[in-house]
Amino acid sequence: MARMSAEERRESVIRAATIEFARGGYHGTSTEAIARRVGVSQPYLFRLFPGKKAIFLAAAERCVEDTIRTFAEASEGLSGEEALHAMGNAYTKVIAERPERLMMQMQMYVAVKAAEEEGDQEFGESVRAGWMRLWDTVHVPLGGDVSETTTFMAYGMLINCLAAMGFPPEHRVWEGLYPSARLKGRLEI
User: Fold this and answer.
1) Rounded to whole angstroms, how far apart are CA atoms 12 and 73?
2) In the prediction, which pLDDT does 189 show?
């Protein structure tokens, strides 16, 4: 078996960290758990990343970039309502198939508030910058309409909350969402 490069190992740390942070949050996840999931020692982990915060921010950045890519690919060549439904369908599919992405998003928002309460502004600046790139990715295919973008993002946050709380797709709380925004399958977190 070929030996992994440092970049490949770094990628495996980001994937493992996403799963661990999604489950335990920033404060509830140890670097030991991440190292164990990857199959490396903690000292090796810290050769790849300077600390836990850097690992979390790398996982958060990846989560946002993956969501941006999901929306961009789904809406490519589309606009308006077609783009809206394509992005809605793509997102609900991703969170059903990759629930750690949903939970990582939720943990990111909580971590920002906790970090800022502790006086760390960098955390929030990084996460907010990613969120604004996400906003812009949605905003353009929706015709640059602030109201449409706000509604889409609000539906997305509602979907995140309902899915994170474990409401099954057939539950009545999903009935008010347009069909492309409804969760299609069981979400196992």
Assistant:
1) 24
2) 44
Can you give the pTM of this predicted structure?
0.89
Copy the structure tokens of residue 5: 């490069």
pLDDT at 182: 65
Q: What angle do CA 117, 50, 63 make, to 5 degrees?
A: 65
Torsion of CA 30, 62, 7, 26, to 10 degrees: -10
**Using CA atoms, how far apart are residues 26 and 20, in angstroms rounded to an integer?**
9
Question: What residue type is assigned to position 172 of the chain?
Answer: R
- Helices (DSSP H) in the chain: which residue ranges? 6-28, 31-38, 42-48, 52-75, 80-97, 99-117, 121-139, 146-164
Tokens of 40: 């490396």
Distance (Å, rounded) from C-alpha 157 to C-alpha 102? 10
How far is Cα 81 from Cα 83, in angstroms, rounded to an integer? 5
Q: What is the pLDDT of residue 175?
A: 84
The amino acid occupying position 31 is T
